[in-house]
Design goal:
The protein has one domain (about 10-150): Peptide Deformylase (Alpha-Beta Complex). The termini are far apart. It is an alpha+beta fold and about 150 residues long. The longest helix is centred in the first third of the chain and has 16 residues, at about 25-40. The strands form two sheets. It has a five-stranded antiparallel sheet with strand order 1-2-3-6-7. It has two helices and eight strands; from the N terminus they run H-E-E-E-E-E-E-E-H-E.
Length: about 150
């Protein structure tokens, strides 16, 4: 595993729509492992592959209470409710803003073994899922901020 460089705000790869993973190869597993290592190294809770310069539909999330979740080709299939909460992003260090997102979401994806999985999350987990899936579409959270906050707010 290796810590990769996180791409920052003006890097065009962050605005690029990520392509589907056609086959889960050892290289894809290595990317997932590097992403997790990079996320932990930077004290993040989630990371999309394009944030480390790989425009593939790969996401890792770890909120510490559920353990590491790896998602390949994730797709949101259900969203319920709305709430506005503060969020930040490893690609936009020091920027925090309020973003409206669904309270609860269900996502389908493949795991590293290629098996279809379905996960449902609420609260911070739902927010992290939506944030990272936005990255895969080339969307970044600052585009959705309704109010920027001081980091201490």
């Amino acid at each position: 595993m290796a810590v990769r460089i996180i791409r920052k705000k003006d890097d065009p790869v962050l605005r690029q729509r990520c392509s589907l993973v056609k086959e889960i190869t050892p290289k894809i597993i290595d990317i997932l492992e590097d992403m997790a290592e990079t996320m932990y190294h930077n004290d993040g809770v989630g990371l999309a592959a394009n944030q480390v310069g790989v425009p593939k539909q790969l996401v890792v999330i770890d909120l510490m209470d559920q353990g590491l979740i790896e998602l390949i080709n994730p797709k949101m299939v259900q969203a319920e409710g709305q709430e506005v909460e503060a969020e930040g992003c490893l690609s936009f260090p020091g920027i925090v803003g309020e973003v409206e997102r669904a309270k609860k979401v269900t996502v389908e994806a493949l795991n590293r073994e290629g098996k279809k999985i379905k996960i449902t999350g609420s609260g911070l987990f739902a927010r992290a899922l939506q944030h990272e899936l936005d990255h895969l579409e080339g969307k970044v959270f600052i585009d959705k901020v309704t109010r920027f906050l001081e980091p201490s707010e």
